[in-house]
Design goal:
Layout lengths: L4 H24 L7 H11 L7 E4 L4 E5 L6 E4 L11 E4 L15 E5 L3 H14 L4 E4 L2 E2 L4 E7 L18 E8 L1 H8 L6 E4 L5 H6 L2 H7 L2 E7 L4 H13 L3 E5 L5 E3 L10 E7 L2
Parallel strand pairs: 4-5, 4-10, 5-6, 7-9, 10-11
Antiparallel strand pairs: 1-2, 2-3, 8-9, 11-14, 12-13, 12-14
Length: 277
């Protein structure tokens, strides 16, 4: 975001305030698209208050606004009304709430291994009439098969990585799938966006999507935990670097900075935006 620090703080407060009101209105009036965040971002841009968390994807009039605090993606596209060029999105964590923005011809795959949360997502999808959303009751991982899923007391913090959940409330044996296996099974001809937030397992998800990343070249937003095993982080870094991806970290205030894979003692994780070269 450009301009003075005071203007940046004011703009961020406006953005987060509008996002909060939009969420409440959407809960009150399901099935009616609300575009408050998108309109505010455009208004800010016209006045020179560019919010760096608003991402312009290459090759289409598509935008992802990643707001402070946790990759709450708002995605809109010319594909909203286009049946010829539908946008296709893979989300590895419970984010079907703005699926209307992908348009009737687009596709969203939302993965959730916790049966209770998957049921909530299905009810939300049905309530909003999101016929283009498929809820996949599996965990995305670096290999397809089965794995133990550690359910945290706060379900949004659950993970396939045991170290990420100190005192799991429950252990589930769940089905896992790689992005490559899923795409081969479904026969998707394109993939525009991958959004990953899987509590410490993001790099393995990337490694399970080697073919998709190389062939389909999607934009990727993921959460990188600095305690990720060095060999796993190194393999993900080599994969994205070898494919020519440009990586930027995203601060809580929406500002971007050059992302480095090395340890950062000030935080335990960072949101990363990856653009195909």
């Amino acid at each position: 975001m450009s301009s003075s620090p005071a203007a940046r703080r004011l703009s961020l407060r406006l953005l987060l305030g509008v996002a909060a009101v939009t969420r409440r209105l959407q809960a009150w009036r399901p099935q009616r698209p609300l575009r408050g965040v998108q309109r505010l971002v455009r208004w800010m841009e016209r006045r020179g208050l560019h919010f760096a968390g608003a991402v312009g994807l290459p090759g289409a009039s598509t935008r992802t606004s990643t707001a402070a605090g946790g990759q709450s993606a708002r995605c809109s596209s010319s594909a909203r009304t286009s049946r010829r060029w539908p946008t296709r999105c893979g989300s590895t964590r419970r984010r079907a709430g703005t699926a209307w923005t992908w348009g009737p011809a687009g596709r969203v795959a939302a993965f959730e291994p916790d049966p209770a949360l998957a049921g909530r997502i299905r009810r939300n999808v049905a309530l909003n009439g999101f016929r283009q959303v498929a809820v996949i009751e599996k965990a995305v991982d670096g290999r397809s098969g089965q794995a133990t899923f550690y359910v945290a007391a706060q379900p949004g913090k659950s993970s396939l990585v045991a170290a990420m959940v100190a005192q799991p409330a429950q252990r589930l044996v769940v089905e896992t799938v790689t992005l490559d296996d899923f795409l081969r099974e479904r026969g998707w001809p394109r993939l525009d966006v991958i959004k990953i937030d899987v509590e410490g397992n993001d790099c393995r998800v990337l490694l399970g999507g080697r073919e998709a990343l190389a062939r389909l070249r999607p934009f990727v937003a993921f959460e990188y935990h600095y305690e990720t095993a060095p060999e796993v982080a190194g393999a993900a870094a080599e994969l994205l670097g070898g494919l020519g991806y440009t990586l930027w970290g995203l601060r809580l205030n929406g500002e971007r900075f050059p992302f480095a894979w090395g340890a950062d003692g000030s935080v335990d994780h960072v949101d990363v935006l990856a653009w195909p070269g």
